[in-house]
Design a protein that fits this description.
The protein contains four helices and no strands. By secondary structure, it is mainly alpha-helical.
Length: 75
C-alpha cells in the first residue's frame, strides 16, 4: 500500500509531540535545544504546517530529544 504524504507527516508529528512530552520538555525548550523557533515546533505538532519541514529539521528535533531519528518514523 502506498500512503499519501500526509500519512508520513502525521506519524512524525505525533511522535515529536509524544517524545517531547516523555522528555518533560515544553515546545519552547525543545525549540531552544533544536535551534528552531517555538512557533515552528507548535505548527509542526498541530498540523498547521503541511509539507513544511525537512528531514534536517526532523533530525535536529530528534537530536534535541536525544533519540534516534528512526523513532520519529515508527507508527
Amino acid at each position: 500500500m502506498i500512503h499519501d504524504d500526509n500519512y508520513y507527516y502525521d506519524i512524525i508529528r505525533k511522535n515529536i509531540k509524544e517524545y517531547r512530552k516523555k522528555a518533560n520538555l515544553t515546545q519552547q525548550q525543545l525549540a531552544d535545544k533544536a535551534g528552531i523557533s517555538m512557533n515552528y515546533i507548535a505548527k509542526i505538532e498541530s498540523k498547521k504546517m503541511q509539507r513544511g519541514f525537512t528531514i534536517v529539521v526532523a533530525g535536529r528535533i530528534a537530536d534535541a530529544l536525544g533519540i534516534d531519528i528512526r523513532l520519529l518514523f515508527k507508527n
